[in-house]
């Protein structure tokens, strides 16, 4: 099981969205909330709601998204990432709306189709993940422009120097360096140290960050960190977030 397998499964299961985009909502800017956190002395952390993952299996039984999102807000998160992929991550698209609590909500999924941009907006997302290696430069540029036409700045995920080049040519401005290898699913936090300095834009380090020390290390190269598993496994996710956001190792 790797990113290619998951993408294939998502393509197989894809059902075109037929709902209404309900224009009028102005998405919140993740980059602005990252800046704001840094300015008032919080470590900028995007807290992720992820019931399961292919590597960990079931992480947490989440009966109610709303109080979890609220506790992430109260405990200093600068954004909420919500897994919407159902089969491998136990997510649901309905979770996006439930996670809205005044922080930008990022749709985390294996998106590939231009129609999924309007769908993400309609479902309440403020931003959406685009995995650079899934696209050609032209199709990525189209996905980025499409997202911006709804006021959403996409988070473009990179795993390699080639991904960075493609993302830059496509006009990305908000990046995630994923520390998890998309073929082996193994985590290497050294990837952030290698790739983040090559990127011109706002950079988020994603995956495998568990401790205050690892967070501080990631933030010495990046503007923000995205943390899922460590929060989902904690007895009290809000408390675990708080000690990362306000703790200084
Ligand atoms: O749970 P972790 O190791 O803190 O990782 C969070 C996040 O980086 C991870 O969920 C993720 C990063 N990129 C993705 C793409 C699709 C699904 C999930 C992801």
Automatic annotation (TrEMBL):
Keywords (A to Z) from UniProt: Amino-acid biosynthesis, Aromatic amino acid biosynthesis, Decarboxylase, Lyase, Tryptophan biosynthesis
GO BP term, example: L-tryptophan biosynthetic process
Pathway(s) per entry: Amino-acid biosynthesis; L-tryptophan biosynthesis; L-tryptophan from chorismate: step 4/5
Matches recorded under CDD domains: IGPS
Origin superkingdom: Archaea
Enzyme class name: lyase
Annotated Indole-3-glycerol phosphate synthase domain residues: 29-244
GO MF annotation terms: indole-3-glycerol-phosphate synthase activity; phosphoribosylanthranilate isomerase activity
The EC number(s) this enzyme carries: 4.1.1.48
Family: Belongs to the TrpC family.
Name of the molecule in the record: Indole-3-glycerol phosphate synthase
Organism: Methanocella paludicola (strain DSM 17711 / JCM 13418 / NBRC 101707 / SANAE)
UniProt gene name: trpC
